[in-house]
Amino acid sequence: MMRCPRFRYASPSTVREACRLLGDAGGEAMILAGGTDLVPNMKRRQQVPATLVSLRRIEALHGLKTTKGEARIGAMTTLSALVAHPELRERYPALFKAAGQVATPHLRNMGTLGGNLCVDTRCNYYDQSHEWRQSIDFCMKKDGKICWVAPGSPRCWAVSSTDTAPALMALGARVLLAGEGGQRDIALPDFYRDDGIDYLSRRRGEILTDILMPAAVPGEASTYWKLRRRGSFDFPVLSVAAWIRRDGDGIVTDARIVLGSVASRPVIAPAARLLGSALGPDAIEEASEEASALAKPLDNTDFTLGWRKKSARHLIAGALRELGGEDPRSLGTIARRAAELVPV
Description:
The chain is α+β, with helices and mostly antiparallel strands. The chain contains 12 helices and 12 strands. The protein has helices at about 15-25, 40-45, 80-85, 90, 95-100, 105-110, 115, 130-135, 165-170, 280-290, 305-325, 335-340, and strands spanning about 10, 30, 50-55, 65, 70-75, 175-180, 180-185, 205-215, 220-225, 240-245, 250-260, 265-270. The longest helix has 19 residues, at about 305-325.
């Protein structure tokens, strides 16, 4: 049985107190939200904080509030609470689908939106027991000096494994970060770095407190598709979030496509080929081909490299065709596999 290393536990009741505790720890503390990713990592000795600062008792970080059509979601809101929220599915379908496909119902009851946004990057050579990693020599992400995915590379290529970040980026979300120096309001893409180790732009002592959602407007639609080996539990090996806005004539006036699990951060793909179209087959094919060029799989997740590369174009096209009004279950094998995971 794997056990966590010894650690100190702090449970503050305010954001200010939590920030102070993190600052006093001098980099030796980590934030505990739902713990569904951090605790297993601690058991595998991937992360060994001296202190855990739990955010569970901070009431200000829980729940969803709407003001003038905009939504403010506390970072400690559980994924299950998001999926059960009566307005979320109608206003933000991409977030609803992404939250509903994280892990399993039991883990969604514990896992939080903030925790999923900050979830650790993943790699076949990193997500193993301490003894396994020790047997091949540790990698640069923890205790070693080499990236086993690309041994000649000076950087870590562990991939972003968050489901909700691509969906929220496609929807145009922002995040609030609180620290001893004050509060920062940044666009969600600026929260991530393309580095498997230092993958967040969160400063030492800062806490992700809120996710800010823009007001839903007429003519917009969004979706999230996820590819994984099993129909539950697994992290994505590829995900696609898509958002469009159409005018009264059905012409696309704005669009966003975001790819997940193709790099150490979610990747914003080009969507300009959709603009001015009625989301017809030609526009979808061209946009899917262009966006899929950003998917450059490495040997760090499940499935073979070639298959994952080919799947990208089909998954993107399927998501866009769904936004165009087609039934995802009729769009081929890969599309059916993704559609089967959409919560009802």
